């Protein structure tokens, strides 16, 4: 699986999806740039989300708030005091690690050992293998399972108590070594704030320390009354936003899964106190449906309900997606109570309550939020679309089976040869369709090579113009996934493609 993931990362670079940031300067850790294909896919993802939230819901509107915000906002939200990761340094390699991630990796190692035993036994016993029975009775499995359970319990308690010394003790007791130096020579565990800060204004007039927002949500909270009043919104209503967020992540791994500059699509839904759990359930279901509608495969998703809740939440779940490196969070759905709005009311000293005309009373709304990372969604789509296929003639083709609605290029139009008026005819077709779909003109190399190139970027349709076209106004349309080809009239193209590229 790791090999596949490496291939996906280099495929993304080779075909203009994702480049390391500052590439000619050898990159910048955990920062990436989207190329000519990547930006189209990303825009399509954002549109798919925006349309489903803002266009399809009468009671949800969008905003676009600034990245810089008043610094007190981050005090009120709790980020200044509590948006921390526990870090530990290895004294020999001088490398810094997240203590919690080192322990999570250790948990994964126990899982790996258990799975290895299970797989070995499955091979040995074949058809008659009873996995549950084996797990419940095999000595080695039980031993590792017990160690894993004990570690999990100890780890959860240490996190819950915010006990940094205990996190360090766990690392020592588990004999975890630094992957670089191979030693266990660790410092103590310290908290490290994830927010980036900078200065606003020049130093002579007293510069103010400001933060790059670590989430877009606060821009919605501080604007909720502006939007409610000017948009005459009535509870329940939602505000949606897409925008950049910044976190000084220490463990920068897994490509665009965890970045220091990334993009979020968040929606805060304001409800009457007491109704939040019903709305939480409803959004939890709606969001999973939205993901599944893309057709990447229903079994690739699962919920991960949180049993340990942040102090401000009364329910929380993640939607996880099966990446090549395991099931990982792509979206969080949280019932955040009235925590954020109450905090802002306290810190700004103004009344920001909502007046409910039906109840004839004022109150602080409760909030259910859905928060998804654009980049993680991008990664989930690319990973599940990447496919190496053995063809009948023995060749391998690499194809990105992107959902047609999200594909950067919807159709490539190709003249069979570069003469006899075929290029002109091809351009004529593009001129007819380019306002409706993103089209690409391609005349270089053999037709087979051109098909492969379009497969690799995930173009769902290739349209070939040949000599016959000049007589009958028909073209060959080739379908990316089945590689089937059919002859259709040029006038039908618009409908055929429109039908397939909508969700
Ligand atoms: P994680 O536990 O993976 O760090 P989180 O629980 O801190 O994520 P949230 O604060 O709930 O994440 O943010 C909501 C969404 O924003 C996540 O589900 C994820 O898709 C995205 N996200 C968060 N941090 C990053 C990051 N560093 N890079 C890319 N996307 C991110």
From TrEMBL:
Residues spanning the membrane: none
Gene Ontology terms, MF aspect: ligase activity
Binding of ATP, residues: 247-249, 257-262, 329-330, 373-376
EC numbers, comma separated: 6.1.1.14
All residue ranges annotated as the Aminoacyl-transfer RNA synthetases class-II family profile domain in the record: 148-403
Coiled-coil features, chain-numbered ranges: none
Pfam families reported in the protein's UniProt record: HGTP_anticodon (PF03129), tRNA-synt_2b (PF00587)
Catalytic activity: tRNA(Gly) + glycine + ATP = glycyl-tRNA(Gly) + AMP + diphosphate
Subunit-structure text: Homodimer.
Record family assignment: Belongs to the class-II aminoacyl-tRNA synthetase family.
Protein name: Glycine--tRNA ligase
Record organism: Bacteroides sedimenti
